[in-house]
Amino acid sequence: MTGTILIVDDDASYRKLMVGLLRAQGFEVFAASDGEDALVEFAHHEPDLVLMDVDMPRLNGFEVCRRLKQQPETRLTPVVLVTGMAATEDRIRGLEAGADDFLSKPVDRNELLARVRSLLSLKAYTDELERAESVLFALARSIEGKDPYTEGHCERLSDYSAGLGQRIGLPPEQITALRWGGIVHDIGKVAVPEAILLKPGPLSPEERAIMRRHPLVGERICSPLRSFRWVLPIIRNHHEKYDGSGYPDGLKGEQIPVAARVLQIGDVYDALHTERPYKRALSQDEAMRIMEQEVQQGWWDPNLFAQFRQMMAEGSESEKG
Q1: ∠ at Cα 194 (190, 197), nearest 5°?
Q2: What are 148-166's pLDDT values in tens digits?
Q3: What pTM did the predictor assign?
Q4: What is the distance between the alpha carbons of residues 239 and 260, in angstroms, rounded to a whole number?
């Protein structure tokens, strides 16, 4: 197994010992002498694993760990805090900072190598997942890119959905699913011919049947990724309607997963509020009036629509201010 490791310790002799030991095992190893130097070296080398002392000048290990774990681009890098302190409160501080593991000084060679190999294996797995996710996001954006009228739709929908989800108190994993769902909700349209996808006029019954399969195709494309388990109901059910007249399952009311109901509110609003080949872009007030009529027809969740309308009104007021 290979990997890049950053050693952070203010003790030069200990640093040299650790670097030599790990390089002898075939790892690429870099070193930093304190917390601030660690952040510089991390940005330069982007290591797969950090082994870091706790008690250091300038920034201690807890603070460096906290900063790394707060950034989306670095939070999945494993951080092991190496310390001579065995007190429970120190381990609690480390866990609160986001540490993935702990080693006590003096470090046992066999334990060190076992922990390093285990965490590097986990990092390789998460990197593989991230690459797969990136491919799906790129595929979804390529579908959006086929239609110049939907440019920016995915990002706007992610923002609308996550904002509404936060407003109604959904848990963090559902907020993340809404952000991802905004990007990949229509990924199943990769199986829809462009002649149907970009047709300016009404679809024939046969064309409509093909189009209505895209939520099921999208769910099938994304289902191998366990990290997408909260996103799958959004992909499958964002075309359901509150009165049961939607597709593909004809779900009704609260049978429709709440995240799917949240996303469809933003999806409908963005479709009304942006220009399309067959219509002009409606103002916010015009879009809300039409959505209110559709709520009365039984299409959308009335409580979620009321929250969304209030959220958008508050956003407009803050922009004026």
Answers
A1: 80
A2: 556 778 889 999 999 999 9
A3: 0.63
A4: 8
